[in-house]
Amino acid sequence: MPDRITIEAESLVMEGWVVGLWDTQDECRFLINGIDFDDVAWPLPSPDLLDCFPDIPQAAASRFRCTHHFLDKRELFPGGVARFNITDRFGEHAWSYRTAWFLADRTDEPPVPPVAQIAKVIGSGDENAFLWGGATIVSRFACLLAERFGRPIASFNSILDWGCGVGRLTRHLLPFGPRVTGMDMDLEAIQSCTAALPNADFMQVGLLPPVPVDDSSFDLVLGLSVMPHLTEAAQDAWLAELQRITVPGGLLLLSVQGLTQMALYRMPKERKLAAQREGVHDACGVVPAAGASDAEMYPRDILHSPSYILSHWGKYFEVLDIIEAIAGNQDVVVMRRRAD
């Protein structure tokens, strides 16, 4: 997890932490664009991490500070993004993108949302974390689509950023070329996106569908951290609506809370067990009754079991995979709309 990435006139410094279960710390490699950093300070004291990961003794010394020197800043961003990874001694491989972090070149970047709006999306007003988080998720999705389906993002015709917020993903999707449509409940966020990202389309939608979109409008749907905030009934309504507006054969990447996020946020084990037992579990407590207000219905704190997703979501789409922690800290459910 990066804490800070700083670019100076002739150097880039990345600071953060890494906690692993299997690899010894002396085998870790710190890479930028596939090559080793010039200088690595590691492991550094991190007693705060031991509080988060008490069962991993090495967590108490798991921070790092890496420095890369360069002559031309343009070399940092091949293809428009810099890639950071921490690997074992063997280096990167075909799936390394799933744990890599990406930073987009900020040259000619669209305006960044106000701090208050960023905080609503990521829990803090950290502009840099907002930017590298969005670039990371989009870059990982792009690599996944290419690796699994042989589909670069440029090959899609129309992308839906469902639950777009203030455009955290949309701003990084636009350079690939396809038309992007963002949907969100938050009118202020939609207005901010419309002003900052004029090359995309945005619309405010309600907590529940329908939406004013034609059948079979999108061949790629991305839904980052939407399902974890909807009741089971609302999820079903949206799964049916997404089925309607996705083209036959279209792909969907929807994120859910998996074991990685539960561990990072120290979800009580009773909640995890309840999710496995019930299939879908609302960690907020009492589930709102039918007819409850939007304020009571949203946001929730929903946990899913993989078997529930495979069986229940499988009624709406072909569930192809559930990939751990590829969407920031959340898992991604990879689905495809069945042919009519």
Report on this structure:
With 340 residues, the chain is an alpha+beta fold. It has two domains: 2-104, Immunoglobulin-like, CATH 2.60.40; 115-336, Vaccinia Virus protein VP39 (Rossmann fold, 3-Layer(aba) Sandwich), CATH 3.40.50. The chain is 27% helix and 29% strand. It contains ten helices and 17 strands. The chain has helices at 47-52, 115-122, 127-149, 170-173, 187-196, 232-245, 259-264, 269-278, 294-297, 306-312; strands at 2-7, 11-17, 29-32, 35-36, 39-44, 63-69, 81-87, 101-104, 158-162, 179-184, 201-204, 218-223, 246-256, 280-282, 302-304, 318-327, 330-336. The strands form four sheets. The chain has a seven-stranded mixed sheet with strand order 11-10-9-12-13-17-16, with helices on both faces. It has a four-stranded antiparallel sheet with strand order 1-2-6-5, with no helix packed on it. α6 links the parallel β12 (218-223) and β13 (246-256). It is globular, with a radius of gyration of 20 Å.
Throw out a few tags for this protein.
340 residues; alpha+beta; Immunoglobulin-like; Rossmann fold; 2 domains; seven-stranded mixed β-sheet; four-stranded antiparallel β-sheet; 17 strands; 27% helix; globular
